[in-house]
Amino acid sequence: EDASQAVMESTLSWCFAAGHPVDNAVGSAQYNFVNRISPLTKKIFKAKTPLEREALRDGIRVEVEGITQDIGDMVVNLTRVLTSLYPMFKKDTTLIQLKLSEIFYRPFLPQLLETYNFLNESDMEVYRAYVIARGLDDITAYTDIKQKYQLGDSPYQAAIDCISAITETSSPIEKFSLLVNFGQTISESVKQFYLDQGHDEDQASEVSNLGADDLFPITLFVITRVGKPQLISELQLLDDITHEQDLMGNKGYCLATVTSAYRGLVAQQTRDGTSGPNI
């Protein structure tokens, strides 16, 4: 099995070496997407007044939807080409997905995220105001978080770090991995807290089994502490470039949970100002 893994990794390295047809196809696709996205970011940069920016929004949105659809389709097609050329990958395309995620998005992802930031700038401004007003509130101010999940000083730092790191990688697979780890670290933080308090394994495991109603307000606390308005653009991009069938299960659940918490925070801030950190 180790030898087979080594052969697959070596094959992929060869496919993505300069001059190989697969590498040429990837480079051509990257060049195409850069050339489609760059004019959009230039238009956004030139639009200075609110009226100019608003006039651009619908057109930019349509262009971005087309680009992200084509990005998702291109990744699927590249995967099919590789499995057709090298049947050893047909049973498991994980290595292909990891390689494409690592290298394919890198040249154009920052500019693409600029377009998402433009489309989300209103929500990002609301989020920014909320964080300025409430970002340092103690967890006890989040009254929707049950007392048993408030966990003392500086709770859920590992989850905060996971969400924050989403903005620091260009790999969609790594972004999704951080999202899934975010949910796991919340449960692990609760369990470890109660083990440290002297509870036995069964008791700590039981209390760390959070339902959606418990997870959501904790997520709200976490994304407030993250303090990165552009998080919503990262989440929306992941949703847009990922095929629906790949959002089943825990990956899609974590994406939906964090996105809903961000949207809920914005909705409350828009409705009530800085009245409090609960949705």
Helices and strands in order, then pairings?
Layout: H1 2-15, H2 21-46, H3 50-85, H4 94-103, H5 109-119, H6 121-134, H7 157-165, H8 172-196, H9 201-207, H10 212-226, H11 231-241, H12 250-272
Helix pairs in contact: 2-3, 2-5, 3-5, 6-12, 7-8, 7-10, 8-9, 8-12, 10-12, 11-12
Describe what you observe in this structure:
This protein has helices spanning about 1-15, 20-45, 50-85, 95-105, 110-120, 120-135, 155-165, 170-195, 200-205, 210-225, 230-240, 250-270. The chain contains twelve helices and no strands. Helix content is about 70%, strand content about 0%. The termini are far apart. It is mostly helical and about 280 residues long.
SSE pattern: HHHHHHHHHHHH
Query: How is the quaternary structure best described?
Result: single chain
Count, helices: 12
Radius of gyration: 21 Å
Computed structural class: mainly alpha
List keywords for this structure.
279 residues, mainly alpha, 12 helices, 0% strand, flat
